[in-house]
Amino acid sequence: MRIFFDARELYFLTQFVPVQRVLRERGVETRFVAYHNRGALHERIRRGFEREELPTEWVESKEDGLALYQRERPDWVVFGRGSGLAQHLPEGTRTAQLYHGIGMKTDLWEPQLNGFDVRFIEGDYYAGRVRELFPDAPLVQVGYPKIDPLLWTDRERPTADLARIGLDPEKPTVLYAPTHSPSSFPNMADDWPAHFPDYNLIVKPHQLSHHSSKRSSHRRKMALWSEAPNVHVVPIESYDAVPYMNAADVMISDVSAVLYEFAATGKPVIQADFLAYHWTKSGPLWYRRWQRVDRPILRRFHGLAAHAKRYRDLARLVPACLDAPAAGSEERLALTRELVGPLDGRSAERVADVLAARGVAASPRVSLSGCR
Question: Are strands 306-308 and 269-272 parallel, antiparallel or unpaired?
Answer without folding.
Answer: parallel
